[in-house]
Amino acid sequence: MALMRPPPTVHLDLWKKELGRVPEYVWDQTDLETLILADNALSEISERVGRLKKLRVLDLGHNELTAVPDALAELDGLTDFLYLHDNRLTSLPWSLARLTRLRYLNISRNALAELPECVCGMTGLIELRASDNQLTSLPDSVGHLQHLRELHVRNNQLSSLPESVETLQDLRQIDLRGNPLTHLPAGMTALRRLEKLDLRWVATLVPPRWIADLEARGCIVYR
Q1: Is 132 inside a domain boundary?
Q2: Which residue from 67, 73, 139, 143 could staple onto 164, CB 3.0 to 4.6 Å apart?
Q3: 21 lies in which domain range?
Q4: Average pLDDT score over residue span 98-120
Q5: Within a domain: residue 179?
Q6: Does residue 126 lie in a domain region?
Q7: pTM of the model
Q8: Are 223 and 201 in contact (CB under 8 A)?
């Protein structure tokens, strides 16, 4: 679908334009702060994306990406949102660990068998969404995400959580729905700010006794 070149702008919304590929003019708009490319049947993103140094929001969701370029790591201004959900990703480049100012990452509905290690380097994350993948475990390094408030890993293959989760003292919400859990670390009682623990659709877990302690102090546990 041919699109007329728009005038220079800081917010470019190309949602659901049947693009197939990103028009070259997009990579020349170096003042962009928001770029929406969702739902365009995109199978690749040019390394030229690294030129968009002022981007704060990048939405690549609902496409057909099997990989993203290392150049994403050059987006020093990417602070607000990175949407990569509903693609075909099996991994992410290690270089993305450089996105230490990013606060929201959505990598749900991909084909990830493990949480990419680069994610645990994104130490500014407040919200991480990795639901509807094939994760069998989370790495101990998830404990590096000291600012994390929401962890969403619904509908994966998790049997437990790493002990390092107890160090995430800012956590407010953990969504574990639909996982084959058999164990949760008792150290989760140390999460003093936890407000919501979602264990619905988990038929494999014998609820540990300490869950009552969470509930007694006001944490809502769905089960």
Answers
A1: yes
A2: 143
A3: 11-169
A4: 98
A5: no
A6: yes
A7: 0.95
A8: no
Is 201 a member of any domain? no
37, exposed or middle or buried, with CB in 10 Å at 0-12, 13-18, 19+? Answer: buried
Question: Which 3-state string (H, E, C) describes 37-102?
Answer: CCCCCCCCCCHHHHHCCCCCEEECCCCCCCCCCHHHHHCCCCCCEEECCCCCCCCCCHHHHHCCCC
How many angstroms separate the Cα of 181 from the Cα of each of 28, 166, 213? 48, 17, 20
Q: Would you state the structure tokens that stand for residue 148, as one six-digit string?
A: 């994390």
- Nearest-angstrom CA–CA distance, 62 and 50: 21
Residues 24-44: tens digit of each pLDDT: 999 999 999 999 999 999 999
- CATH value at residue 18: 3.80.10.10
5 band by pLDDT with thresholds 50, 70 and 90: low
CA dihedral 55, 57, 61, 67 (to 10 degrees): 40
Q: How many CB atoms lie within 10 A of CB 92?
A: 21
Type of residue numbered 29 = Q
Residue with tokens 């300490």: 210
Average pLDDT, the chain: 96
Decide if 31 contacts 6 (C-beta within 8 A): no
Provide the number of structural domains found in the chain: 1
